[in-house]
Amino acid sequence: MERIAPLRLAEKWDNVGLLLESPIHRQGPKKVLLTIDLTSSVLAESLTKETSVIVAYHPTIFKGLQSLTLSNPLQSSLLTCAAQGISVYSPHTALDSVWGGINDWLAEGLMNGKEDGQIRALVGEKLNREDGSSEGAEGRLVTLKEPIAMDILEQRIKSHLKLSQIQVGYPDPTRSRSTPIRSIAICAGSGGSMLLGKDADVYLTGEMSHHEVLAAVAAGKHVILCGHTNTERGYLPILASKLQTELRAIEFKDQGLGDVEVIVSQKDGHPLEFV
User: What is the per-residue pLDDT across 35-81, written as a single tens digit (0 to 9) for each?
Assistant: First the structure.
């Protein structure tokens, strides 16, 4: 995971890396289960699939814990993991920032092929301290070679994220669907604080507060909200492929990790539904 999304790319406020290390070594076949959130359903799934490690994108421990008890659902899940020989790792904003990570995946879904536009950092790039190379950045800015109508962009987003509905804020409802769009500022998850004030035709994220949406629309920006985890979950199969490739590298095969199977949770899902 450190090769895929170096933890040094995570935001200072974040809590990433190995968050729970079980003292119990599970016997038999081993699997790594990928999920956005460690819910009770995902935990139950992990117990039936001979899981040794859960890679939960969102940190299962974010702030300091004063106790670990079974009365708290999340803490109960962590205690169960420890007792059952399951460790928990979280990449969170390191996976957002790294080139080829979640934000790039979101950006690529807005274009009709790689030659359709340019993807670059929305906020300052993160440089490697040793050689000065760019390793990632906060957010992404997509600039299309040719403008497209707003309704075409909406369809591309719904197709890429496999959603039937998204929420859209229009600065001018009278000509909303036909407005030409050329630049889209992107932040996976909750992007209000990062997106506000940026120069782009559209702000695309999972969620923003009511007042953040009002401020953006008043500033003449289109706002597209897809649901927090809906902007993240579609990347898990890509992460699974990358991690599987790493585990099958020669140095890890020699450590007996070549047979570890990386799977994506079937129980992980967005917590809200349209009814």
Answer: 999 999 999 999 999 999 999 999 999 988 889 999 999 999 999 99
CATH superfamily membership of 7-93+233-264: NIF3 (NGG1p interacting factor 3)-like (3.40.1390.30)
- Annotated binding residues for a divalent metal cation, as ranges? 58, 96, 228, 232
Alpha carbon distance 192, 207 (integer Å): 7
Between CA 41 and CA 43 the distance in angstroms is 5
**DSSP for residue 98:** B
Query: Any idea which residue has 């990062």 for tokens?
Result: 194
- Please name the residues in contact with 172: beta carbons below 8 A apart, sequence gap of 6 or more: 179
Q: How far apart are CA 78 and CA 29, in angstroms?
A: 22
pTM above 0.70, yes or no: yes
Check if the beta carbon of residue 57 is closer than 8 Å to that of residue 77.
no
Q: Tell me the binding residues.
A: 58, 96, 228, 232
Mean pLDDT of the chain, nearest integer: 94
Q: Note whether 78 and 56 are within 8 A (CB).
A: no
Query: Any bridge partners for residue 88, and if so which?
Result: 20, 54
DSSP 8-state symbol, 228: G
